[in-house]
Write a structure and sequence with these properties.
Involved in protein N-glycosylation. Essential for the second step of the dolichol-linked oligosaccharide pathway. The protein is α/β, with parallel strands linked by helices. The protein has a single domain, classed as 3-Layer(aba) Sandwich (Rossmann fold), CATH 3.40.50. It contains eight helices and six strands; from the N terminus they run βααβαβαβαβαβαα. A six-stranded parallel beta sheet has the order 3-2-1-4-5-6, with helices on both faces. The relative contact order is 0.15.
């Protein structure tokens, strides 16, 4: 007997700066419908410092089995002091456990991006337009340009799901094996700067 595959989309909003608009759009009909259309069965959300009210309201208004859930197992949490690696790894394929490869959708924080890139599944990065002078737009653009991830548009978030599915077939491994001498002198930060074109 064949068991249905579990396919997870993990979303991280960030633990410090609020990003309520991203959380609201992740829980909106177009994004949830796009997940269902592409075979997702679960949505796991790290909703950040101030997102619990938005998440709880959605859960209250859309109990399990209701149409607004789109047959998705939707779970969330605020903050984990030991990081998000375990949650990110839940998106990795595991044939023996009937888990299909999913995606990670992240705010444009450099720490979250680096962790997600090391997991090796398709990544969608969404910059926060409310933050000033933080280079999130530039960082997101460079990552997408180099083929590391999809640049997500906050107002058209559903479009990022098929783009991430397409990226799966061309995803470059991170970090690349040929990074030059910079990796030895400056560590991972140097790798990030080199790979993303942020060298002086």
């Amino acid at each position: 007997m064949t068991h249905p595959s579990r396919k997870v989309c993990f979303v991280t909003i960030g633990a410090t700066a609020p990003f309520d608009t991203l959380l609201s759009n992740v829980l909106a009909q177009p994004f949830l419908e796009a997940l269902k259309k592409h075979g997702y069965t679960a949505l796991l959300i790290q909703y950040g410092k101030e997102g619990q009210e938005i998440f709880d309201t959605f859960i209250k208004n859309n109990p399990p089995g209701s149409p607004g859930r789109y047959d998705l197992d939707i779970q969330g949490f605020g903050f984990k002091k030991d990081g998000l690696v375990q949650e990110m790894r839940s998106t990795k394929a595991n044939e023996s456990q009937h888990i299909a490869e999913g995606i990670i959708l992240s705010h444009a924080g450099s720490g979250s991006i680096m962790e997600a890139l090391r997991i090796g599944v398709p990544l969608v990065v969404v910059p926060n337009p409310a933050l000033q002078d933080n280079h999130q737009e530039d960082l997101t653009r460079q990552i997408a340009k180099n083929g590391w991830a999809v640049a997500g548009n906050l107002n058209r978030l559903a479009e990022s799901v098929p783009k991430a599915e397409k990226l799966r077939s061309t995803l470059r491994s991170w970090p690349s094996k040929d990074r030059g001498e910079l990796k030895d002198s400056r560590g991972l930060a140097g790798v990030v700067e080199e790979e993303m074109g942020f060298l002086d």
